[in-house]
Amino acid sequence: MTTWFNDLKELIWHPKSRGFDQIAEHGTVKKGLLTYFCLDIIFSLIVASLLSPLIGFLADAYVLEIAALGSAIILGMAVFIFVVRGVGLFINSAIFFGLYKLTKGSGTWSDVVKGFIYGNIITNVYGSIAGLILLVSIAASADLLLVGGDISALGILGIIIAIGLWIFYQNISLMSRILLDTKGKVFILYIITGIVLSVLEYMVK
Q1: What is the distance between the alpha carbons of residues 12 and 18, in angstroms, rounded to a whole number?
Q2: Distance (Å, whole) CA 82 – CA 41
Q3: Is 104 left (phi over 0), alpha (psi -120 to 50) or beta?
Q4: H helices of 141-182, where?
Q5: End-to-end CA distance of the chain
Q6: Which DSSP state fits 108?
Q7: What is the pLDDT of residue 184?
Q8: Per-residue pLDDT at 127
Q9: What is the mean pLDDT of each run of 10 residues along the chain (205 residues)?
Q10: Residue among 202, 204, 196 at smallest CA distance from 99
Q11: Exposed e or buried b for every residue in 46-75, given b needs 16+ CB within 10 A?
């Protein structure tokens, strides 16, 4: 068996060569949720580290009290994010699995949940990295949008779309590997799942 950290490392650094195979063969829902929670903790810590200097500047007389309260807020925020995302993942998985079984697929419920969990991990990690790169690029060249006008804006939009499509393709490839099914079939099921979710959200509203 592998550790959750080793699974994450292979998934991020070698997704197509070793990562997908390792997740399909050794990844579990439990390890996936643990990885998800750890990433939420890291995200919360990053947000807190960015906000803490501002809080200290505005209320320097209460730094220790704010730090103690901040620790509880960080943990609470991480747990809240984890629960909300977890509920969303299981809803997506339930819809996808129901559609998948209509196609007489041989994969299990655990396989689908695992695919969605690790697929979202890919989305979060690579999406965050891409977002940081774009922010740094824009910050390093404050006149980026002014110099090129619409061309620069369209270029950035094109990069974002390309990264989004690449991440979506990785999600499809991973789920296809886990279910031992075709990418085309998984792609269609993802699209239908998205449509069903949109209809349900519209009905709830």
Answers
A1: 10
A2: 9
A3: left
A4: 144-148, 150-179
A5: 44
A6: -
A7: 94
A8: 85
A9: 85 85 90 87 73 55 57 74 87 94 90 94 86 70 50 68 90 94 94 92 80
A10: 196
A11: eebeeeeeebeeeeeeeeeebeeeeeeebe
Cβ atoms of 114 and 29 closer than 8 Å:
yes
**Number of residues that this document lists for the chain:** 205
Q: Are residues 112 and 100 in contact, defined by beta-carbon separation less than 8 angstroms?
A: yes
Give the model's pLDDT for residue 163. 86
Tokens standing for 7? 């699974």
Residue type, 66: I
pLDDT of 15 = 82
Q: Per the confidence metrics, is the pTM higher than 0.90?
A: no
pLDDT of residue 96: 95
What pLDDT, on the 0 to 100 scale, is given for residue 45? Answer: 73
Per the structure block, which two tokens stand in for 78? 């991480």
Sign of CA dihedral 10, 36, 129, 170: positive
What is the reported pLDDT for 178? 94
HSE-CB for 195 with a 13 A CA cutoff? 7
The type of residue at 119 is G
Lookup: tokens for 91: 């809803």
**Hey, what amino acid is at 59?**
A
Residue 48: partners with Cβ closer than 8 Å, 6 or more residues away: 70, 73, 74
